[in-house]
């Protein structure tokens, strides 16, 4: 799918300075580090959801914001793959009338409670969601639907540019810890590619998907990286030092690439050593369906999120302008 972007719906301009060349094409791949396969969630207070984002410098330069919803696999199979649901997703909206289990807090760049801005293996960012769910999951099969959005150049807005689904199984006999991320490749889940840019550097033509995905590049490399993520999910979300542990500082590189948008400034977010400065705290989300208690879009991390209807409106405007042209 190609989306030509106009002035009002184009993306963030990267400041390259002395950094890598970010001229197109630029492909940003999204892989799932955890959960994969058959897992046990009994040891976690808040169940982790960990993405890897490849081509990290480009991803941070354009900024990223990954929201997610968790579905029972049988519910998703019955309702989530029809044309109406897919059309809603591609407009940047959650599919209506499909019961969901939970919607957790998202993963996103340069912000959070606290920020988790680490990368490894040269250009792979760790996109650690605050949690997949805080509720115990019954044994069974589940599907995660995720939406990847990015800042645009001109508007106080974000736009969904990629989405994907990921399946896993909860089984108390399954893998119990995060160390599996050292032994197995992550699972490719989607991505997006910038094919052309305007004269000012803003992406102008993009397409969803990755032509030659390589999720094994995103496999974690050492036990300290696992310990860092275990600390992050073991400690309370109110503990603003939970990603500044000795393991985190030793295991990863800190993402401090500059960003230029009309609406976002990273000044003051990092100390002189390049470590993230606490940005405050926020609230969590409920669970249920869109029609039942705790399940409205407005419930989802209201301290952090942009209303998903904004994404749908932005995507609709882009498609309308493209049609007019």
Q: Would you write up a description of this structure?
A:
Keywords: Signal. Residues 1-20 form the signal peptide. InterPro entries: DUF7136. Residues 289-300 have a biased composition (Acidic residues). The protein is of the alpha+beta class and 325 residues long. The protein has one domain (2-271, 285-324). The protein contains seven helices and 13 strands. The strands form two sheets. An eight-stranded antiparallel β-sheet has the order 1-12-11-2-4-8-7-13. A hairpin with a 5-residue loop joins strand 11 and strand 12. It is globular. It starts with a strand and ends with a helix.
Largest sheet: 8 strands, antiparallel
**SSE order:** EEEEHEHHEEEEEHEEHHEH
How far the N terminus sits from the C terminus, by CA atoms, comes to: 17 Å
> Class by helix and strand content?
alpha+beta
Number of DSSP strands?
A: 13
In DSSP terms, counting alpha (H) and pi (I) runs of 4 or more, how many helices? 7
Side-by-side strand order of the widest sheet: 1-12-11-2-4-8-7-13
Please tell me the total number of domains: 1
Q: Please give the oligomerization state of what you see.
A: single chain
Residues in β-strands, percent: 15-25%
Q: Mean pLDDT, rounded to whole units?
A: 74
Please compute the radius of gyration using only Cα atoms: 19 Å
| Anisotropy-based shape | globular
Protein name: DUF7136 domain-containing protein
Domain DUF7136: 25-220
Biased composition (Acidic residues): 289-300
Signal peptide: 1-20
Top keywords for this entry?
325 residues, alpha+beta, eight-stranded antiparallel sheet, five-stranded mixed sheet, globular, disordered N terminus, disordered C terminus
